[in-house]
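Quick one, probably user error.
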């Protein structure tokens, strides 16, 4: 997923390539200030279909390219579709917990294959043939680089053995609530037809649920520098509510879900500390970590957002975040 930072103030986050280690002195990636909370839940549970035979990790099986790596698949081997910021963190934590496992990473281009190899991920190009199915699959690729996102998810599902776990990262934008209302795992999803953006996510989620996989709807991801967004003013309303989760916490939650081995479930990832855009930028200014000071908001229109709460996910999965809130991430009292 693109950019980095309080860029979430402006857009929905997506994993991007990054160095192996993550600096905790950087700030949010997905604080989505100018778009409404945009991570959406998955839609309807359709009837299950038999899992298709293993297919190419991409558009077609006739590319003539075979994925590198051993044909012998271990019980903890993992396929990451879209090893960007989130995917690489998942890989790092998974390798720490499962020494000797193989982690495969499927990408849309070869631009970062050397980087992936250097951190122990076996890279492959979308469209190359995967030698065997694997017991663990996580799909973190954004829809922005796909002509058929649900189809890409279906291909990923075809490379899952049905053992272990298959997790798809989605967005809290799919929860149908607004006006700063409280929203949890029980809230309904937006209907098909609401927008092209939510439609593609809902259709992809249904593919996952049909295959027996699980969906993790994530709030705004954050991690990197926000310097580009400390430009003085933003033309958005300051009282819009933003929901967040640190990239490291999103990775640890995804892994915790994979280890539980649930089937056909939707989970929610957030820090349970929703903040208004104004509160976020006040915290950034108060932290003293940035030379440039944010001056204020000039907008008055637009949606108010929603207040995400994921106590049920935490209880069922047995998970708590490393960073309980964005303000604590900045070293401030909540």
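Nope, works fine. Designed sequence:
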């Amino acid at each position: 997923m693109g950019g980095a930072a309080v860029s979430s103030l402006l857009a929905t986050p997506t994993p991007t390539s990054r160095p192996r280690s993550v600096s905790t002195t950087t700030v949010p990636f997905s604080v989505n200030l100018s778009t409404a909370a945009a991570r959406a839940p998955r839609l309807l549970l359709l009837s299950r279909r038999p899992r298709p035979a293993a297919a190419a990790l991409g558009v077609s099986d006739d590319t003539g390219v075979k994925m590198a790596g051993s044909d012998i698949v271990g019980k903890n081997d993992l396929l990451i579709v879209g090893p960007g910021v989130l995917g690489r963190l998942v890989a790092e934590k998974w390798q720490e917990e499962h020494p000797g496992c193989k982690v495969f990473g499927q990408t849309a281009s070869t631009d970062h294959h050397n980087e992936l190899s250097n951190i122990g991920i076996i890279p492959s190009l979308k469209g190359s043939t995967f030698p065997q199915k694997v017991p663990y699959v996580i799909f973190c690729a954004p829809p922005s680089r796909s002509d058929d996102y649900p189809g890409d998810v279906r291909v990923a599902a075809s490379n899952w053995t049905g053992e272990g776990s298959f997790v798809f990262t989605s967005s809290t934008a799919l929860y149908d609530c607004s006006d700063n209302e409280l929203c949890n795992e029980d809230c309904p999803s937006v209907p098909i037809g609401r927008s092209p953006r939510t439609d593609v996510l809902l259709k992809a989620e249904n593919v996952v649920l049909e295959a027996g996989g699980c969906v993790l709807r994530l709030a705004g991801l954050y991690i990197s520098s926000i310097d580009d967004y400390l430009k003085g003013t933003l033309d958005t309303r300051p009282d819009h509510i933003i929901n967040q989760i640190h990239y490291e916490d999103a990775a640890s939650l995804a892994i915790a879900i994979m280890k539980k081995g649930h089937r056909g479930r939707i989970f929610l990832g957030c820090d349970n500390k929703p903040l208004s855009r104004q509160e976020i930028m006040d915290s950034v200014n108060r932290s003293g970590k940035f030379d440039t000071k944010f001056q204020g908001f000039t907008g008055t229109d637009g949606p108010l957002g929603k207040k995400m709460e994921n106590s049920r996910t935490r209880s069922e999965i047995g998970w708590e975040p490393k960073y309980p809130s964005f303000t604590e991430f900045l070293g401030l009292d909540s």
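The chain is about 25% helix and 20% strand.
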